[in-house]
Amino acid sequence: MRIGWLMLHYPQSPSRLGANCNFANLEFSRGNERVPMIQLRKSNDRGHAEHGWLDSHHTFSFADYYDPKHTNFRSLRVINEDFVAPEMGFDMHPHRDMEIITYVVSGALRHRDSMGNTAVMRAGDVQRISAGTGIMHSETNDSPREPVHLLQIWIMPDRKDAKPAYAEKSFARAEPGRLHLVASKSGREGSIPIHQDADLFLGKLKAGDKTSHALAAGRHAWLQLIQGELDANGARLAPGDAVAMSEIGAVTLSAIKPSDFLLFDLN
């Protein structure tokens, strides 16, 4: 099996990136009144890296792509949309002090790690690695013919040196028309627990479907559209687009075309 290698280095250490350091964390106020903030992150404005075996789009600064206006959003540090060629992938490499969530959009992704876990993840599967004190893992396309399409997400943990942990859950049969809680701080409603006060939802809407998510005071939302066409609080999104929202009360969504998306509720 051929293995590609990508050096995952940082323009600046993630540990030095606070929760309030990028474009969408600016304070908007009018006197004592908090003003709603909605800001688009268009797909074509993301960082892009083409390595032959890997076609990757970076929502936030990553590897050789650095934009000081787009380093993170609250605790959300990385959203990479990756297309990996058949039988290619990331060789064993290290992580620590990061919550790493992988969502497979299509294809098959083979995982191995230093904790002894092995798995082949398929469309709709979600994996969480709490890197904590340190882990090694590899990710390769398990197919000899088809590319694998995935989103890799990094969330900065609320504490360092946690015990490394692994979890996996399938949402392949998630019912359309509503939000499904994928990950949360407490692991409520059968979700995958993470070391951060953040909720991650998977949404699947048919054309014409509408749904909403209440956003408590002081909370912030990031919506990442994977497939379809969606209206989010008046912002029209195409595949790969995202929108950051603060002080809005509720995220209101209407599907113009059948749509799959991830919604983050962040402190």
Briefly say what this structure is:
This protein is mainly β and 267 residues long. It has one domain (28-266): Sandwich (Jelly Rolls), CATH 2.60.120.10. The chain contains no helices and 22 strands.
Describe the structure.
This protein has 267 residues and is mostly beta strands. It has one domain (28-266): Jelly Rolls, CATH 2.60.120.10. 0% of the residues lie in helices and 52% in strands. It is built from no helices and 22 strands. It has strands at 29-30, 33-34, 37-41, 47-50, 54-58, 76-84, 89-95, 99-106, 108-113, 118-122, 125-130, 135-141, 148-155, 165-170, 178-184, 192-193, 198-205, 210-214, 220-232, 235-237, 242-246, 250-266. Strands 3, 15, 16, 17, 18, 19, 20, 21 and 22 form a nine-stranded mixed sheet that branches. Strands 4-5-6-13-8-11-14 form a seven-stranded antiparallel sheet, with no helix packed on it.
Instruction: Tell me the β content.
Output: over 45%
What's the helical proportion of residues?
under 10%
Series of secondary-structure elements, N-terminal to C-terminal: EEEEEEEEEEEEEEEEEEEEEE
CATH architecture: Sandwich
Question: Rounded to an integer, what's the Rg over CA atoms?
Answer: 18 Å
Tell me the count of domains: 1
Distance between the termini: 42 Å
The total of helices stands at 0
CATH class: Mainly Beta
